[in-house]
Specification:
Carbamate kinase; alpha/beta; eight-stranded mixed beta sheet; globular; 285 residues
């Protein structure tokens, strides 16, 4: 679609109140592994983040990489096993997780952001002790439960006008490494930073009243309404831990949380800089 210069100017004018609202504010974006699988979309997500950074939004990017971890395990002859949606992580697997997330995925996102005009620095949850963890469940091996978040390395980078890009691995006082669920890590980090907003990009449109009908998207709900939807079975399966993370983040001080479809072009900009928004917004009561 071709836009005239007047239409472009109109779009920018409409975005102005939102630019003013988010300028200087912290927005945490959780970029899920399942939303990363399309290279063209990945480019657009990085463009959106670079643009937000250029207009003065303090963006923190927290990323997963589940499909890439599974691919690497397959190449190394290991089978991925999941219990309740969490990857069973033995000593060898946690080394693979660390290699893929803190190495390959993290550095590729940093490089991509920089090609789009952003200044980014890659971190893992182990750097500066950002994420301290303990074993969550003996059955899962080295899957971590977060016990502490240290925000200093993140806020230092934000103050120096960098985009922190954080992979979701953690450590403990004994030097053990842990695989951390990406949604959980993003919720804890956003809460510790007192972020204005947490955006959780995934491979679904948001919370649907009927999971098979995208037109039943629920654009906004409170924590109380979310709990009612648990009871009704509307929030079920893999959506339960996602919404749990939303509630966790709000209790920790995040203003509101968005669950949105990372497969939609420029969905971040639609959410932050337009009246329409995107996905489902979860707010406090």
């Amino acid at each position: 679609m071709d836009f005239s210069n007047a239409q472009r100017a109109e779009v920018l004018t409409q975005a102005l109140p939102y630019i003013k609202r988010y300028n200087g504010k912290i927005v945490v974006i959780k970029y899920g592994g399942n939303a990363m699988v399309n290279e063209q979309l990945k480019q657009q997500v990085m463009e959106d983040i670079a643009l937000l950074w250029l207009i003065g939004v303090k963006v923190v990017l927290v990323h997963g990489g589940g499909p890439e971890i599974s691919d690497m395990m397959k190449k190394l002859g290991k089978e991925a096993v999941f219990v309740d949606g969490l990857r069973v992580t033995d000593k060898e697997t946690v080394d693979i997780v660390q290699m893929v997330l803190a190495g390959k995925v993290n550095k590729s996102l940093v490089t991509l952001l920089q090609t789009k005009g952003g200044h980014a620095v890659g971190l893992s949850g182990m750097d500066g002790g950002i994420l301290e963890a303990k074993i969550k469940d003996e059955r899962l091996g080295y899957v971590g439960e977060i016990v502490k978040v240290r925000t200093q390395p993140i806020t230092d980078l934000l103050e120096k006008n960098y985009i922190p890009v954080i992979s979701t691995v953690a450590s403990d006082h004994e030097g053990n490494s842990y695989n951390i669920n990406g949604d959980t890590a993003a919720a804890y980090i956003a809460g510790a930073l007192g972020a204005e907003r947490l955006i959780m990009m995934t491979d679904i449109a948001g919370i649907l009243r009927d999971k098979d009908d995208p037109s039943t998207l629920i654009p906004e709900l409170t924590i109380s309404e979310a709990k009612d939807l648990y009871d009704e079975g509307v929030i079920s399966g893999g959506m339960i831990p996602k919404v749990d993370c939303c509630i966790e983040a709000i209790h920790a001080g995040v203003q509101n949380v968005i669950i949105m479809d990372g497969r939609v072009s420029h969905s971040i900009l639609m959410e932050l800089l337009t009246d329409e928004g995107a996905g489902t917004m979860v707010t406090g009561d």
